[in-house]
Amino acid sequence: MSHLQAKAKVKLVAPSILSADFANLEKEIKAVAAAGADWIHVDVMDGHFVPNLTIGAPVVKSLKRVSPLPLDVHLMIENPERYIQDFATAGADYLTIHIESTANPSQVIQEIRSLGVKPGISLRPGTDVEKIIHLLPLVDLVLVMTVEPGFGGQEFRLDQMAKIQRLRQEIESHSLPCLIEVDGGVNEKTLPYLSQVDVLVAGSYIFKNSNYKTAIDFLKA
Ligand code: DX5
Ligand code: ZN
């Protein structure tokens, strides 16, 4: 078994604060950190790339002040190149863009890295995985959407599993240091499909559970 395969078995958990109590984000972040979370997943939506609107760089800056965990910022915005400087300054640790959101993804990825932030690439469920294969050597993270981006609490799409296999094969065969992250509908029922994944994003499964530690322990087990 290669080093990367062995690493794939130890899962990181990134609670998505989209399902947290927005009036108490500091408390929520500290609670999931105490419950064993690894990263905080922050969903940024612009009302154009996706129909929903959420938060921007000023909120990320405030979260950075109180979060003991790295901020994993998922940009669901058109032309992310307009904002990456703001999110880098705000303290994002990972900045993931969508392949569908910009004309020149490799350039944006390089800009993110030049700002001292770890870049990630993501794709919608309807986008062919082959479109991002050439970007894998440039990123720290590939984020596979297992729901249509825009909202928490949707049902997991099993039809995305072939993408994970294809990405794992590419990462292994070229020994790339790129993590595979999955986002959308992750819970105790869908976990068995995710053995090849390094990072699990989970919003409703964690924040709708009365005990965050129980939910996080389950995902990490
Ligand atoms: C959806 C977001 C997700 C969302 C996941 O566009 O990218 O991060 O919060 O929520 P759950 O885990 O409830 O499917
Ligand atoms: Zn997300």
Essential attributes:
alpha/beta, TIM Barrel, 8-stranded parallel sheet, globular, binds D-xylitol-5-phosphate, binds zinc ion
Written description of the protein model:
The protein is of the alpha/beta class and 221 residues long. It has a single domain, classed as TIM Barrel (Alpha-Beta Barrel). Helices cover 33% and strands 19% of the residues. It is built from 9 helices and 8 strands. Bound molecules: D-xylitol-5-phosphate (DX5) and zinc ion (ZN). The site of D-xylitol-5-phosphate (DX5) has 21 residues, from strand 2, strand 8 and helix 8. Residues 16, 41, 43, 74, 183, 201 line the site of zinc ion.
Short description:
The protein has 221 residues and is α/β, with parallel strands linked by helices.
List the helices and strands and how they pair.
Layout: H1 3-8, E1 12-15, H2 25-34, E2 40-45, H3 57-66, E3 71-76, H4 84-90, E4 94-98, H5 105-114, E5 118-123, H6 130-133, E6 141-145, H7 161-173, E7 179-183, E8 199-202, H8 204-207, H9 212-220
Parallel strand pairs: 1-8, 2-3, 3-4, 4-5, 5-6, 6-7, 7-8
Helix pairs in contact: 3-4
Residues 16, 18-19, 41, 43, 74, 147, 149-150, 152-154, 183-186, 201-205 line the site of D-xylitol-5-phosphate.
Based on CA atoms alone, the radius of gyration comes out at 16 Å
As a percent range, the share of helical residues equals: 25-40%
How many helical stretches? 9
Q: Taking all residues together, what is the mean pLDDT? A: 96
The major beta sheet can be summarized as:
8 strands, parallel
Distance between the termini: 20 Å
CATH architecture: Alpha-Beta Barrel
Name the poorly predicted regions: 1-8
Strand content: 15-25%
Query: What is the CATH topology descriptor?
Result: TIM Barrel
Shape: globular
How many extended strands? Answer: 8
